[in-house]
Amino acid sequence: MAKIRAALEKVIPPLQQWHGPKTSELLRTPGKFGLGQVPEKCQPDATTNVVCGFCSTGCGLNIHLKDGKAVGLTPSTDYPVNLGMACPKGWEALTPLEADDRATTPMIRKQRGGELEPVSWESAMSSFCSNFKNIQQEHGDESVAFISTGQIVTEEMAFLGALAKFGMGIRHGDGNTRQCMATSVVAYKQSFGFDAPPYTYQDFEESDVIVLIGSNLCIAHPIMWQRIERNKHNPEIIVVDPRKTETAVAATQHFPILPKSDLYFLYGLARVLIENGWVDEQWIAQHTNEYEAFCSHVQTFTAEQVEQQSGITAEQMLKLAETIHRGERVSFWWTMGVNQSHEGVRTAQAIINLALMTGNIGRPGTGANSITGQCNAMGSRLFSNTTNLLGGHDFANSEHRAKVAKILEIDEDRIPRELGMAYDQIVEGIHAGKIKGLWVLATNGSHSWIHQERYKEAMEKLDYLVVQDMYSTTETAQQADLILPAAGWAEKDGVFINSERRIGLVKKVAEAPAEALSDFNIFKLISHYWGCAEMFKKWSTPEATFKLLAELSQDQPCDFSGVTGYRMVDDLGGVQWPCKPSDVAGLASDNQRRLFTYNLFYHTDSKAKFIFAEPTEVAEPTSKEYPFVLLTGRGTSAQWHTETRTKKSAVLRKLYPASIYIEIHPDDAERLAITPNSLIKVKSRRATIEVTASVTPSVFPGQLFMPMHYAKANQLTQASFDPYSRQPSYKFCAVEIVV
Amino acid sequence: MAEMSKKMRAGDRIDTSVISDLLDTNSEITLIDQLLTEQRTLTAVERFSQKHEDATAPIQSKYYQDLIPIRKPSTGEQYGFEVDLDKCTGCKACVVACHSLNGLKEEESWRDIGAIRGIADGVAEQQTVTSACHHCLDPACLSGCPVGAYEKMPDTGVVRHLDDQCIGCQYCSLKCPYDVPKYDKSLGIVRKCDMCHERLAEGEAPACVQSCPSGAISIQLINVEEKKAEATQGGSMIAGAFRSDYTLPTTNFRTKRKLTSGMESADEMDLTPAHGHSPLVWMLMLTQVAVGVSVIDGLGRLFAPEHFESLSQVLTVIAVVLGNIGLGSSLLHLGSPLGAWRVFLGLKTSWLSREIVIFGAWMPALMLYASLVWFPVCSNFLASALQLEIPTTVITLSALAAAGLGILSVFCSIMVYVDTKRDFWTMKRTAGRFFGSMLLGGFSGLIFTEGLINGEVAATTGVAFLAALLFKVFVEACLLVPVRSKEWSYSKKSALIQLRSLRSILKLRWTSFAAALICGVVSLYMPSIALLVLPTILLGEWLERRIFFQAVVTLKMPGELNQSSH
């Protein structure tokens, strides 16, 4: 009977079907390795930590492996950066690797405007070498340049810089890092004597007053905001930003200064602190220079003038100064709102000055702290061989050149004695006919560079454009004569250095598609075909290269010669520089370290320097014709820069508007009869584009905000630069709305 | 040299022989091959230490243990989500973690994100709103499901979807005022959040709770009676969400700020049309016309039997053919039609279940009546022994039975949409359109048949048709009137969607009205034109029904700007 019933049950479906093929699609199973339940279809047989390849936070991602290959990931529970959390990009980090438009073979465009055609690596290398060599022969070595990135591992950056400058004789090379942190580099170098962000993320948890300037941490660096959330000291959170950003909403005090009135505001604040005696005179005298001159400089920034320029009243300013004064551990943080400015270096230094004068440096929870943008911007700062000689050395210093030549076992004469052109100078160099060949790596200037059209035109003017990228579909790749297919993050080994100077490991846990090679291997191949492989015989593997870099760093402020190899980096959960051999023992118990604990700065007299200047006018002020200020910046935490990778993930695409929009204040919208969510035209002196109006009080009247992730945005921006850092000023140009 | 580079710019194939000659070709191939092989070798497992190899318990629990209840719900309690809005800063990790940790399809996630903004209490505010299923006390998805594919778990209160029971009718998506159940075309079913109840059973937190860097999402024990009392007060969970007294949702959005008045969804003014639901457009419009034809025929048989004696044969054919196409196309709407035999399971609560069952009775009744009408014709060919006279009363009664069941079916169709609580689909607005289509379809069928059979259209028929047409014009014009209202409402939004986003389809619709009017009037004088009336009406009603689906405002949680255009 039971048998018959069982047989019947098999034939006749039940009234309520609890199980079946569709239900089993979603079954979960204990994941082992401390993971908790995971989807049954991707249960791992091993796990390993890899540092995320998007932003500079440098989160640890626990990669779930099956037969050695990545099948999923979760944020690493104990990685000291992110403590078990990740932003949407991190969660989806593996998805862009699977995209259909990956570059899978080298490709050549025989005719400008024609189609890209797949070719063998051999033909690609021949084309690369013969074209660049021909250009160099005809126009001189300096007629070929490269533009690199903050997205590749440090070993590759160093290899690129060495190959290009020492091997190929290229003089001019720069990175897209020019767009994100060049300002902080110069500011730190001048103020502290070395490019040295002094903090550790633990400082977010230790401060009792946190001042965020031009930083929308909640969206740009959500995991750093998580660290603020963990702060047990009930901190005052002060946000200085023209917009009421997500971070400003979450803050305890918001100072919506007028765009680019930073110097008036910060000098005004310094004056109030001095006038009230809320400065640490003794500390200043012992550890700084130029304080007297600074004092007299800020005297001229009267309350009236500051209010007129920045919109912040004397009363508000006093409240802010008092908050800083009352704080025992005040930390100052800045990001792109400061860096991407026509006077960013002096602005960053005005912030550094505040930390110095109040003695808020070198102690837990303090510091003048620049938060970097890209995952390896900090690696590029030390090893790209562009703004300084490998390892933070000076091209002009003969001792430095000798040291580098000796370690690398190359002829010292191969090392240039001066800096090459900055990014904007390379673009203008192309227009002037000085640069004829360009090699672009893992960046997309035809989308991201300020006043985009001029960049695109430059690409067309080149005799030969090589794009080395994971995808053959970026705006820049679409203009290339040759595409070199690169392996991406997690398809290769190497280290990133994050915002808090932590060296973290990237591992090869996924296969690159078809014939794509890691940038490291591409450089190897190029050195072979170029005929300079002999110079790079010590650069046999990424890890061998890492050890070379550690050796190069010796006796520099960034000395990490104590780090013996990848396994050590992996076992410790990343290592912050400096890490001399003597520092290693302590790391197991304390893996959070900050600089200037002994108040010793890197200038020869060990003192920090107060640096200041008169504010200057923006390059394109608003006018009757163009009455609105256009601000650009990050839209959502699910978008990364030009979206080359983030738009490949369907689930990330759900998290942000599908097309470009502009934020406008309800009063302006009403005055111009703009209905929310309708299409409007925004016009600058360079272009007119159509965008959706997002009517929101988070921007102030007279200001507009546009996310940078959509290609149209930089058609409007105006190419002006900080004179010291050559960083583009994305945060101010004049526009008009055409309804 | 300059020439050479010019030549290259022009794009000629580059002569690589010079370089190749310089190098040993074999060794290069070896290097390329060697690098390609190395690129594919994955050795991370061998090279690095394995961490947590022996861990049995989830190591993340230290971060989430305070975010889930320490005990199971007792009687009168259930689980509910709580979102601390003051902690949520809009990173949206919860959405992606739900997708990843649950192994969902490419773009699938059971958490959605939106934003509200405005000036609240004089302060400019913006707030990201994360929401999943609200595991309602009175889930509309459950009561609307025709096949019993939903279950409210007695111990946890989790509203669970039975994936293998689902037939993919998507009515739950219309019923849920928060747009929670999402249809997956490849699977042919909807899926939704189950609060990771199997994780909760093991003391693990749901994916979204685990992943929030700020700890803003938690699971709380909800007192059912208290929640019911709170939800029936008439408010909503958060600005932009539907009022809670409909389904009694259990999610609690907590904030110290005043985010209730002056705030609106970021997509409040988004006029993107909703899903077109083509199979349903065909189904509704054709069944209503078919029912209309059968009703007119039935009434005709009752009040003017002589006149209809000759017309019935054609009218029944029209009704049966259109009705069957309509019902057939409704099957196309189902993602997993094989389980549709279970539709009676929802009779107690689901208007869709009732609609399907009654339509299922209507068509056989209609066909029975049709066969009675056609019997004399067919029997002419049969042996005289089989020729029997069917009493007129029997035929009339069966006509009326078919008509009655038809009207009941259309009433169920109306209730299917009324029951979704949308302003564009209220009783008045839906009944006006559906019964209007029925009448208009019926009279246009009659004009058509009179023109065909009698070669003339009766004046009363013409008048009745025009009256039905004017009624329909009035009903549809009323849907556009709210555009003049100063107050913002979903009725106004629906009117705006019609006038802006669906402008061309709306124009066509009103052109079809004019065409029908002209055809109707002219057919009184030129009976051949009568043949055009039915197609014109069918076309017009199709357009109207398309607008019915596309101009409705989907009830959902606050969304994002431009989100729907992905």
Q: What is the element layout, followed by pairings?
A:
The complex is a heterodimer of chains A (739) and B (566).
Chain A: H1 2-11, H2 21-24, E1 28-30, E2 37-39, E3 46-51, E4 60-66, E5 69-75, H3 88-91, E6 107-109, E7 116-118, H4 121-139, E8 144-148, H5 154-167, E9 172-175, H6 182-192, H7 202-206, E10 209-213, H8 217-220, H9 222-229, E11 236-240, H10 246-250, E12 253-255, H11 262-275, H12 281-287, E13 288-289, H13 291-299, H14 303-310, H15 314-326, E14 330-334, H16 336-339, H17 344-357, E15 367-370, H18 377-383, H19 398-408, H20 423-431, E16 437-441, H21 445-448, H22 452-461, E17 464-469, E18 482-485, E19 494-497, E20 502-506, H23 519-530, H24 542-553, H25 566-572, E21 575-576, H26 584-587, E22 608-609, E23 628-633, H27 650-653, E24 661-664, H28 666-671, E25 679-683, E26 688-695, E27 703-707, H29 713-716, E28 733-738
Parallel strand pairs in A: 8-9, 8-16, 10-11, 10-14, 11-12, 13-22, 14-15, 16-17, 17-18, 23-27, 24-26
Antiparallel strand pairs in A: 1-2, 3-4, 4-5, 6-7, 6-18, 19-20, 20-21, 23-28, 24-27, 25-26, 25-28
Chain B: H1 2-9, H2 17-22, H3 25-39, H4 44-47, H5 61-64, E1 77-84, H6 93-101, E2 112-120, E3 123-131, H7 140-144, E4 150-152, E5 159-161, H8 171-175, E6 182-184, E7 189-191, H9 197-201, H10 207-211, E8 217-223, H11 224-231, E9 252-254, E10 263-265, H12 278-303, H13 305-332, H14 351-379, H15 392-418, H16 427-454, H17 459-478, H18 490-501, H19 503-525, H20 530-550
Parallel strand pairs in B: 1-9
Antiparallel strand pairs in B: 1-8, 2-3, 2-10, 4-5, 6-7
